Amino acid sequence: MQDSLQNEDWDIEIYPKSKLLDLNLKEVWRYRDLLKQFVRRDFVSVYKQTVFGPLWFFVQPILTTIMFMVVFGGIAKMSTDGMPQAVFYLSGIVLWNYFSTAFSGTSNTFASNAGVFGKVYFPRLITPVSIVVSKLLTFAVQFTLFIVVYLYYLFFVETNILPNSLILLTPVLILMTAGLALGLGLIITSLTTKYRDFKFLLGFIIQLGMYATPIIYPANTITDPKIKLAIMANPMSSIIETFRFAYLGVGNFSWVGLFYSFGFMVVVLITGVITYNRVEKKFMDTV
Amino acid sequence: MKPAIKVENLSKQYRLGTVGTGSFAHDMNRWWHTVRGKENPYLKIGETNDRTTKGNSEYVWALENINFEVPKGEVLGIIGKNGAGKSTLLKLLSRVTAPTTGSIKARGRIASLLEVGTGFHPELTGRENVFLNGAIMGMTKKEIQSKFDEIVDFAGCERYIDTPVKRYSSGMYVRLAFAVAAHLEPEILIVDEVLAVGDVEFQKKAIGKMKEVSEGGGRTVLFVSHNMASIEQLCDSCVLLENGTVKAVDTTNKIIEMYISGNLKKSEITLQDRKDRKGDQKIKIEKVSFYNSDNLKIDSILTGQELRIRLDYKAIDKFDLNKVKVSIGVRNKKGEVLFNCPSNIFNYENELDLNGSLDLLIPKFPLLEGVYTYTIFIEVDKVVSDWIQEAGNFTVVGGDFYGTGKLPTSGNQSMLVDYTWETKS
């Protein structure tokens, strides 16, 4: 061809490996319409051919709450910190549900999108992010349910619910949950593309995680300091406790715990994005 | 003009076998080498990707040291046999997977049609899927909106556009998917045999669209297909891949010639495993071989020589030869029939044995230099018994047909007849 020196203005360069921090976020931004389409697909396709549509998203937290009220409140008579059981359980379930669905969704990214990934190129980060966002919509629906129940107890029932200004932290708490779920999910999905051993642990980990997070019990009922340390080492614990403290006025909220969770989230997210980015390029060969 | 794509020393290695403890050990070893700053130990031991022979290595090179450039605006065909590395090359170009070594550089957006309808969700309506699929292919919502009517019109499914695609007929599904893909406007388009979809009418439409895409916008197109007719119609030049390496880059005609002749490795072709045959198989052709006048097997045919084409068959019964019609038809590479040799224009007195051979004798072979394909046809009592289209092909080398050492030089001619000129005064 021509003078090869003039030819160095390439738009796309493909090499065997990318640099560690070459995340190509610019390109992710360029594909933002795809993100919207994925979110739409995930959210809309769930309730196609149903009459009640998104109303079905209410059913799951309601049933779980009732079950908790019967098993843990009624039979095991566990403390709810003097709060009405419905509000107490729901406040934990809603946020935990978001975490667990987003986490299990993103940790399946490679396995469940192998078909599309094998045919077309787009920034792979779009897919897990879209899962986290579409689960956020589900969360919004369930959060509304919580608010309705909460307001009912706040205004029409005599209780000692004490909302405070930490309610303003709600968006931060949601973002932290999202970041944590995304980061952990990216790590798990990267680990399971070639060797699927981890997959068998995942369901168990999520179930275990729920018991290791103060959802069915208030954190301040734990008396053994070792167990308490273990529970609070779980980054979701502080998020749930802060959420509960903000809306209900009970629980042991601490800035230290919250900052710990935030730092944990940042580290996990960065590690997740980097490992995902490394695996993503050659994932099709080993899936 | 600057090249739109530049491929340098591109290689892709695959590991055969299953993923398990064995590959885990290799991964650990590779990681240990990297930690010590040494080269990947498995890069050296790969073998050439030849499916038919059993290799010693678990690693094969699906592509090895590929180099080529594509000028902007060119339609480049990529041809090669199954397993030559075409799909791997396309996967690397479309960034579905990364190369093992080497690099690819390109100017402009790359969009690939490795398969149409990627990401179509069955529960969503046609309209929703157009937007979803378009976005997956890299179009923005605005772009899709502006082309939406065109897409629906091209697919011809306006009535169904608000119905979930799971209710579509398979043809309609594919047409809608292709329509979205055809309205992409990337600078570089990669297409893999998608034209093999839909009915004849739609295929024509699709080829027309492809032509329009490549001619109108000065866009670069890479096109992979086994269909030489569409390659010939669309491509300016071609790359021929063989066992993961580039065998040649040249004009379409030359490469097609090379490709077709490369398929004929032996003068003997066994047909037992051919699945694309028609008929009730009362008589089944198992092998085809070519002989010269001395009854020696030959690889290529010389114009003017005596040729014997032997068909080895197996029959389920002894048939009266007068009730059997066997024929060999020869076509040129454009698919035009040059001649047929049906047996039923002669009368016979014997009958066919349960197995044996049927020989076609051509005293003076009339075709000029080139590559030709042949079709074999047998019927018993007017019922098709065995019919293999494009059973194989053969190469003809120019020979001394007239015994004068000269052949006609007119370029359009492919066949010779015996003749003499006489004078009278």
From TrEMBL, chain A:
InterPro entries: ABC2_TM (IPR013525), ABC2_TM_bact-type (IPR047817), ABC_2_transport (IPR000412). Belongs to the ABC-2 integral membrane protein family. GO terms for molecular function: ABC-type transporter activity. GO terms for cellular component: ATP-binding cassette (ABC) transporter complex. Keywords: Cell inner membrane, Cell membrane, Membrane, Transmembrane, Transmembrane helix, Transport. The chain crosses the membrane at residues 55-75, 87-105, 125-154, 166-188, 200-217, 253-276. GO terms for biological process: lipopolysaccharide transport. It is found in: Cell inner membrane; Cell membrane. This is Transport permease protein. Residues 52-279 form the ABC transmembrane type-2 domain. Its main location: membrane. It is a multi-pass membrane protein.
UniProtKB/TrEMBL annotation, chain B:
The keyword Nucleotide-binding applies. InterPro entries: AAA+_ATPase, ABC_transporter-like_ATP-bd, ABC_transpr_TagH-like, Bact_Polysacc_Export_ATP-bd, P-loop_NTPase, Wzt_C. SMART domains: AAA. GO terms for molecular function: ABC-type transporter activity; ATP binding; ATP hydrolysis activity. Pfam families: ABC_tran (PF00005), Wzt_C (PF14524). Residues 43-268 form the ABC transporter domain. GO terms for cellular component: membrane. It comes from the Bacteria. Keywords: ATP-binding, Nucleotide-binding, Transport. Belongs to the ABC transporter superfamily. This is Lipopolysaccharide transport system ATP-binding protein. It comes from Formosa algae.
